[in-house]
Write a structure and sequence with these properties.
This protein is an alpha/beta fold and 163 residues long. It has one domain: Rossmann fold (3-Layer(aba) Sandwich). It is built from five helices and seven strands; from the N terminus they run H-E-H-E-H-E-E-H-E-H-E-E. Strands 3-2-1-4-5-7-6 form a seven-stranded mixed beta sheet, sandwiched between helices. The two termini are 27 Å apart.
Length: 163
């Protein structure tokens, strides 16, 4: 659990920037909850359409005293906010194309997407490259995990710098 879920979620920390983050398809709160704990000075929003999961996330927020975490229950297509997010991130939410198309209304103009993937997503990137030519893929090292992990960053040129 610690390696496969917690450390895996924390592996993206060096790539996270911006004041507001949205974890789409948050499920059990990975990576949103670890990000809220680590980046207590940032606003971390977690979004899931499942009521049971959203209630669980609210309980986690309350139990851990995560005042910087906001829980939303909605489908991503119908989720609307007044201020778009600096970073929209996901872990096993959808294909890159589905993530970007479904979430683009939630991303600030100078923001970026972070998509956590296992094996290098060559097929997904080839489909996405025409519409979003500015993307980068970084291999992630998760201590104790002998499996491939990659982070796909899609956004403006500044966000593509390696930490």
């Amino acid at each position: 659990m610690v390696t496969r879920h917690l450390l895996d979620s924390l592996a993206i920390a060096p790539y996270v920037a911006g004041r507001t983050l949205l974890d789409v398809g948050a499920g059990a709160g990975l990576p949103g909850v670890p990000m809220a704990i680590l980046f207590h000075d940032r606003e971390v929003h977690v979004l899931d359409s499942n009521g049971k999961k959203a209630r669980f996330l609210f309980q986690v927020k309350t139990a851990l005293g995560l005042d910087n975490m906001v829980v939303h229950q909605a489908r991503v297509e119908s989720f609307c906010v007044a201020d778009a997010f600096d970073t929209v991130l996901s872990r096993a939410f959808a294909s890159l194309q589905d993530m970007v198309h479904g979430c683009r209304h939630l991303l600030a103009p100078d923001g970026y997407f972070l998509a956590m993937k296992g094996a290098y997503p060559a097929d997904e990137l080839s489909v996405l490259s025409i519409e979003y030519p500015r993307s980068a893929v970084y291999p992630l090292a998760v201590p104790g995990l002998d499996e491939q992990r990659h982070l796909v960053v899609i956004g403006n040129q500044q966000s593509l710098r390696q930490p």
